[in-house]
Amino acid sequence: MPVVLENLGKRFGDGAPVLDDVNANIGKGEFVALLGASGCGKSTLLNIMAGLELPTSGALEVPSDGAAFMFQDAALFPWLTARENIELALKLRGVGKAQRRVKAQELLDLVHLGGAGDKRPHELSGGMRQRVALARSLAQDRQLLLMDEPFAALDAITRDLLHDELERIWKETGRTIVFVTHNVREAVRLGQRVLLLSSRPGRVVQEWAVTEEHRTDAGLAGQLTGVITARLREEIRRHAK
Amino acid sequence: MPSNPTPVVDAPSTEPEGSRHITAALTRSSSGHEDLRELESGLDSLQSDAARKHRIDWSRILLPMAALVVLVLAWQFYVSLGVKRRDLVPGPLDVLGQVGVLWGEGKLQEAVWTSLQRGLVGFLISVVVATPVGLLLAQVAPLRRAFGPLISGLQVLPSVAWVPAAIIWFGLTDGTVYFVVLMGAIPSIINGLISGVDQIPPQYRRVGTVLGASKLEMALQIVLPAALPGYLSGLKQGWAFSWRSLMAAEIIAVGGTIGFGLGSLLDQGRALSDMTVVMSAILLILAVGILIELLVFAPIEKRLLRSRGLLAGSTR
Fold it and tell me: What integer pLDDT is reported at residue B54 of this predicted model?
């Protein structure tokens, strides 16, 4: 099991806990969508898995080499070209110079940006930037890839395409992916499993399996989306005064 | 939206059995690898801007020239009114004549060369000293808390104030001039670098951490390049401070082994009560400042901003 979360809790200062008693197991090569309303601590949970923050209680097990991370905004460095952004990730990992060049081109080809390597981030569209960011996180060469709403700021057409793209890359590279989103359709589209996180405190309240059937049958997928949406709304309604 | 000719299936769950061919955003939207590649490259070309060509913009050259001509004409007009005595307010032609005389004597070249050389050497030493110090102060919180106010204070302190002390310590030597220049330029470069670092989006550091950058790698590979626009304006200000401090030092400290610079020329004009020399020196000091800005800093800054996409919509 690359990721095991046991009774994980997190609070900032003396405030109410953001995460409380979070339990989850994520297997190698699995694609898990972490779903929740705004403010449920999804990002905090991801930051804890990435080692950017420490939990205040509980235990977690993550791969010893850490995790690759992809942010909502591409967060590419504007002073580097697309290729150099990827090469920097390789360099910080200690890959030699000649090999960096080859590997960066491979990764650019993987995200279908082989011809745009010498462009600066500001010359790329939002979708292209996210693909460079995806290539950069793959350059880190970690088994675990954490994604924090990476497609939330994109237009619908681009997002649909990137869903296909991400699914393809996941199958080609065999990564374990934890994908945080507040979009039920996106969670059902991508995840093999959808974990629903409650709000204040965040806790895994229910999970659903998404089969290959759901991917090809829009009717079935729609049904599942309906069920999950209803459960999510129930969770949100609990906070009404 | 006008009427849509193709019927759209909105609620897939109401479809009867056997509707497995329907694809919506929820299911895969492309069919196969090649299809996906084509769709993406179509979208990419729709969404990215076509490369724009850069041409020479004549208004950039002609407008400043026109402004200069207008100012000189106004000056000549004022002088021709005869409000003040000609030896107190010389006209543009008188000053131009004096510049010619100074050039003929070789004084002009000597003064400009001496000052420029000192200014540049002093500035480069300041850059070498201020850059690591600034980076260290910006990255290490306790150091910054301790020394930050002092550095800001030094930037406010006019560096002319150091001239008397420098004369006592170093006498009338080049040491005095360089000391004053360094005291002027170093704090302003440090401050520029620190404020450049402060303006880095916090996301960059997080990315650096995630990518596994060590402290040194973070400082050199991420913080320094990210802070480059702020650092560059710090350098510009640092150059301005060196040039000003240099002139102040040259005007006050004359004689000894100190060479003959533009400030010395200015002071000589004052001593001889020759207004044309004074005006020539002032204009030369101004001209050097403008040339350095136009030939050195402006192209670097423009390139830097353009490569980061920060130039669009600016009036530069």
Answer: 62
